[in-house]
Amino acid sequence: MKILMLTWEYPPRIVGGIARVVHDLSKRLIKDGHEVTVVTYREGNLPYYENDKGVNVYRVDNYMINPNNFIDWIMQLNFNLIAKANEIMLNQGKFDVIHAHDWLVAYAAKTLKNSYDIPIVATIHATEAGRNSGIHDEVQRYINDTEWMLTYESNEVIVNSNFMKNELQRLFGLPFEKINVIPNGVNLNNYSGIEKDYEFRRRYAADNEKIILFSGRLVYEKGVQYLISAMPKILNGYNDTKLLIAGKGGMLDELKAQVNYLGIQNKVYFTGYMDYKSLCKLYKCADISVFPSTYEPFGIVALEAMLAGKPIVVSDVGGLNEIVEHGVDGMKSYAGNPNSIADSILTLLYDHQLYDKIVKNAKNKVKNLYNWGKIAQDTHFTYQKAICETMAQRQERQIAQQKTNKIKKLKGEEKEITNLLDFRKRQAYA
After folding, report:
1. Is the pLDDT of residue 102 over 80?
2. 212 and 242 Cβ atoms separated by less than 8 Å
3. Range of the domain at 96
4. Can you tell me the distance from the alpha carbon of 224 to that of 336, in angstroms, rounded to the nearest whole number?
5. How many whole angstroms separate alpha carbon 224 and alpha carbon 294?
6. N- or C-end of the chain: fewer Cβ atoms within 10 A?
């Protein structure tokens, strides 16, 4: 199967979780014998083309003229994605399916579908309404409407959790059977050759300190502010703890001010952005990873932490709520509740038997349920459904066209007979 992936991020350009999903899914599809082409945005000095271990990656620049806003920037990018996909198909033939990742590539996917009659499978990784707890301005409404359009134009839609399936049905009124729940996965070899590095650990904490780790974008919906608010209670119950916050985002200054206000500057460390290899080392060094999101469609970071062999604490929302079984393979806390977060962390710090049980169960769960082999098979099945639907629609159009042609032919013959009868009547009258 020839698959076209449209995405605005692909490693080494990583903005959110989409890049890793597209990367790992593409690699697995290649392993299964498919041909995958990724068309994405070119950042910095990255090559315009590279063969990423079998995945054909084409990158495009955006326009030299500066856009008025982010929406215009995305629209300009879509024009260039279309141009590059056209060029590829002109030289290499048509794709069997287009896999579009989020609203950012909606217009390119729709245009290519209509131009070449290629089915679309769209993955909606998150919604604008979910990220912002509703739609509050015209920019958000535009993005929300674009998301709806992409789901409407798609033959099949993929989401990563039942929470997201319910959200799409509620927001866009999609048919139940059109939405396929396929979880995200994690590369089971992520930590191959990576052991706990004590020298690396000492950059951030003393040997006697327990490391509580948060990794992710520093934005409101990730809930870092509630984890910081939980620290005074945690420190009161277990003083030798250190909170590491790995990531960047618009809330950085606000979070630093919150730490200063609470007077816990010596117990909270902002690492800034970390590359993936360093982050894997940090997961291995941490004692507990915490993901206190207020909105989270899935949460790949939780899987990465579970695979690292360390227990996690998550909030009881979205995909995180579906991944973790409380007290079995992780701990849950009430979303937005610092006391609840602190209680779950303190339980793990003091109950060593529970700690070890959760680590063991979490690793097994990730290996059995969230491996890319199974996920790629489910995705391939969804591609097949979309292709079959498109073929059926083509046949329906052909049958309808044949009927139309037949009717036209019969009407033409009827008109000829009528004209002949009229001619004979006129002759007889003459």
Report:
1. yes
2. yes
3. 2-181
4. 10
5. 10
6. C
Our count of domains for the chain comes to: 2
Q: Which of 346, 369, 392 is the last residue of a domain?
A: 369
- Residue 379, CA distances (Å) to 165, 169, 183, 361, 414 in order: 16, 20, 10, 26, 52
Q: Is residue 188 part of a domain?
A: no
pLDDT tens across 17-28, in order?
A: 899 899 999 999
Last residue of a domain, one of 181, 208, 230: 181
Same domain assignment for residues 310 and 202: yes
The CATH code of the domain that includes 257 is: 3.40.50.2000
243 bridge partner residues: 212, 268
Token pair of 343 as six digits: 């209680």
Measuring CA to CA, how many Å separate 87 from each of 60, 91, 101, 360?
Answer: 12, 6, 21, 50
Note the pLDDT tens digit of each residue in 309-365: 899 999 999 889 989 999 999 999 999 999 999 999 999 999 999 999 999 999 999
Residues 177 and 203 in one domain: no
3-state class of 297 per DSSP?
Answer: coil
Confirm if 36 and 30 have CB atoms less than 8 A apart.
yes
User: Averaged over 267-286, what is the pLDDT?
Assistant: 89
Average per-residue pLDDT in the chain?
91
What is the Cβ-side half-sphere exposure of residue 368, based on CA atoms within 13 angstroms?
7
Answer whether 0.85 is exceeded by the pTM. no
Q: Specify if 300 maps to a domain.
A: yes
